[in-house]
Amino acid sequence: DVLILQRLRLSAGQRFLEIGSGSGYLTMLAAYIVGAEGEATGVDISAEAVEASKRMVADIMATGRFGERVRPPRLLQRDGGSLLRVAGLAVREGQTAHGRAAGPCLLEGP
What we know:
Elements: H1 2-8, E1 15-19, H2 25-34, E2 39-44, H3 47-62, E3 74-77, E4 84-86, E5 89-91, E6 104-107
Parallel strand pairs: 1-2, 2-3
Antiparallel strand pairs: 1-6, 4-5
């Protein structure tokens, strides 16, 4: 998971989107890296996975270790067949608007 974030060269202030976020672990790591100035979003088809992710994030944030440094990630549940608009990208059935396979990606722009 950390290797994915290293390959993306993720840094403070950037936006991160993970399609198929599962447990939310990678999205939470990304939220830590992009900091309060950035934004991390995780999307998963499973409502149970998203709810578990939200509980995990709440538990981590409740420790107070991150203080103001981290903005909690957005964790969304969407079904795989519907058109999804997140951070200005259209995503349908495992493919981004740029034609790349779904998965973690770095979002360019404001």
